[in-house]
Specification:
The complex is a heterodimer of chains A (287) and B (257). The radius of gyration of chain A is 25 Å and the shape is globular. By secondary structure, chain A is mostly helical. In chain A, helix 8 (187-195) packs antiparallel against helix 9. Helix content of chain A is 77%, strand content 0%. Chain B has two domains: 1-77 and 153-233, P-loop containing nucleotide triphosphate hydrolases (Rossmann fold, 3-Layer(aba) Sandwich), CATH 3.40.50.300; 89-151. Chain B has helices at residues 46-54, 93-97, 99-103, 109-121, 137-149, 167-184, 195-201, 235-256; strands at 6-17, 20-31, 35-39, 61-66, 69-70, 78-81, 155-159, 188-192, 204-208, 215-220. In chain B, the strands form two sheets. In chain B, strands 6-7-8-3-9-10 form a six-stranded mixed sheet, with helices on both faces. Chain B has a four-stranded antiparallel sheet with strand order 2-1-4-5, with helices on one face. In chain B, strand 1 and strand 2 form a beta hairpin. The longest helix of chain B is centred in the last third of the chain and has 22 residues, at 235-256. The chains are: A mainly alpha (287), B alpha/beta (257). At the A-B interface, helix 8 and helix 9 of A face strand 6 and helix 3 of B.
Chain lengths: 287, 257
């Protein structure tokens, strides 16, 4: 291979990689590991530092605790040993996380297990579409809080009520996106499967389902966010455990530090579950 | 019953779309092992004829039979090659090729062996775990032919399969399909708007008019196979080509009149 003289070896390697179409060697700084971590952390760190400064210099109402206080509270809540019987925020965080997490997981799993097959059905079968689609379109516009009174009246203040509410809010984005995913699977794939001898069920499970996975995952990502909203809403208004209940309790006790800690935790959990669904998508969609 | 020599039979087939007759009283007959090409102006209904044989479209009247059985919906006895390879992008090459037998719950060791043989023969043996997007256009079309052949179809239906390929690849694919036909004794119904392609590959060419499709010329290509690109420069080829063009021309003039 011809080499170009007077070219540094790094530049040379990059030029060669460029002709090969190898993106790796030409990666801009913001796509490299360090760059991405920097961009990821920049805004949160700036906000926390500013916030700490505002509190330290008394430039903000004194009901707002400093980030360091919030962190201490969170630490104590997670790993603290109770010094007295009234210290409800010592080591009890995991129970709340477990209560909320279990509900989210259950409701979300039901939503996916029912929403995806139903979405494929609506997308694949004209009869199913004409039978069900308008009902789903009507129900999905009812906002989550509007379901709360009915849900509590029907199920009482129970875990079942929470799971039902989470199921409801996660179900609609999943089913709607799955159905439109199936719609966009090119007809030629359906025809190819049929002429190769695939029975209807096989076409649905092996062609329409995998062909609509990118759309299904859009639904799953929207759904997981909705699920966290729903769990907090139902715990705020009634159910006596979980992170939403902690939020309500902290308000009653006037514990601003606990409120802020819980909000941050909810944000982190939402982000983490969205990334988890994203990773699952990357693993499942390989083409 | 005597086994017939007929692979495909269409008699008095009509179909209209949105009130317009696309196919009107169409009759066609393909012998076993014959390579028949329908050539005609775009939109003349030649793809619709293929879709009716494939079972994707339903004729409003007439008889359509393949291997002495009435056509009712698509099936593995009629393998279709589309304009794009239409391999499933989420499956590996191997899973694409064995899709038919797997869908019919007939993927036994013998069929696996045949699939492996086919792939090696088609020069795809090293790419079993590749995704279709990692293969060239020509390789994709060869894979699309392989996934049909594994089903042992009574007829191969090819709907302008090389339209999206570059000129060199197209010529290579034309030779490849003729080779496959010679080796497997396949019956082929081929659709194209390229008169050269039609004459080069076929045993018989039917020139169709504008919609509704009618046969305006039948050209029997006597040239023996295998054919080489030299045939494209021969006297006979030019004669066939001028006949086909005259037939196309007169049908277009009739429409204008």
């Amino acid at each position: 291979m011809a080499t170009i003289p007077n070219m540094s070896s790094a530049r040379h390697a990059r030029a060669q990689a460029a002709t090969r179409g190898d993106a790796n060697a030409c990666t801009p700084w913001y796509e490299r590991r360090a760059g991405r971590i920097l961009l990821f952390l920049l805004v949160p760190v700036v906000v926390v530092v500013l916030w700490q400064a505002l509190v330290e210099w008394d430039l903000i109402v004194n009901t707002i605790p400093a980030p360091t206080e919030v962190a201490q509270t969170q630490w104590h809540w997670m790993f603290g040993v109770p010094k007295s019987s009234v210290d409800v925020y010592a080591g009890t965080w995991w129970d709340q996380l477990y209560a909320s997490g279990e509900r989210v997981l259950l409701g979300y799993l039901f939503a996916a297990l029912i929403g995806i097959p139903l979405g494929v059905l609506i997308g694949a079968s004209r009869v199913a579409y004409l039978l069900i689609d308008h009902i789903i379109q009507a129900l999905r516009t009812v906002p989550a809080p509007a379901w709360v009174p009915f849900t509590l009246a029907f199920f009482g203040l129970s875990t079942v009520a929470t799971v039902w509410l989470i199921f409801l809010v996660a179900f609609f984005p999943i089913v709607v996106n799955t159905a439109s995913g199936v719609h966009q699977v090119p007809t030629v794939f359906r025809n190819a499967a049929r002429m190769l001898g695939a029975p209807t069920m096989f076409v649905w499970t092996r062609v329409l389902f995998p062909g609509s996975l990118p759309f299904i995952f859009v639904g799953l990502r929207l759904g997981v966010g909705m699920a966290w909203i729903a769990v907090v809403v139902s715990e705020l208004v009634g159910v006596k455990s979980g992170l939403g209940y902690s939020l309500y309790q902290a308000y009653q006790f006037g514990r601003m530090d606990v409120m802020i800690a819980t909000m941050v935790v909810l944000g982190v959990l939402g982000l983490a579950s969205d990334r988890a669904v994203g990773l699952l998508a990357r693993w499942m969609i390989r083409s | 019953m005597v086994k017939s020599m007929t692979a495909v039979e269409m008699m008095g087939v009509s179909m209209s779309y949105a009130g317009l007759p696309v196919v009107d009283d169409f009759t066609l007959h393909i012998d076993k092992g014959e390579f028949l090409t329908l050539v005609g102006p775009s939109g003349c209904g030649k793809s619709t004829i293929l879709n009716i044989v494939a079972g994707f479209a339903r004729a409003s009247s007439g008889v359509v039979r393949v291997a002495d059985r009435d056509v009712a919906g698509p099936g593995p006895d009629r393998g279709v090659c589309f304009q794009q390879a239409a391999l499933f992008p989420w499956l590996t090459l191997w899973d694409n090729i064995t899709f038919g037998p797997r869908a019919q719950r007939r993927l036994d060791p013998e069929r696996r062996k045949r699939a492996a043989q086919l792939l090696t023969e088609f020069g795809l043996g090293e790419f079993l775990q590749h995704r279709p997007s990692q293969l060239s256009g020509g390789m994709q079309q060869r894979a699309a032919i392989a996934r049909i052949l594994i089903n042992d179809p009574a007829v191969l239906l090819m709907d302008e399969p090389f339209g999206a390929l570059d000129a060199q690849t197209r010529l290579r694919m034309q030779n490849f399909v003729m080779q496959v036909q010679a080796e497997f004794g396949s019956t082929i119904l081929f659709i194209t708007h390229d008169v050269d392609e039609a004459i080069y590959m076929s045993d018989r060419v039917l020139v169709l008019s504008t919609r509704p499709a009618r046969i305006v010329a039948e050209i029997v290509i006597g040239e023996s196979k295998p054919r080489t690109p030299d045939y494209l420069l021969s006297e006979q080829f030019r004669d066939h080509k001028s006949r086909a063009f005259k037939a196309l021309q007169s049908s277009l003039e009739k429409e204008a009149a």
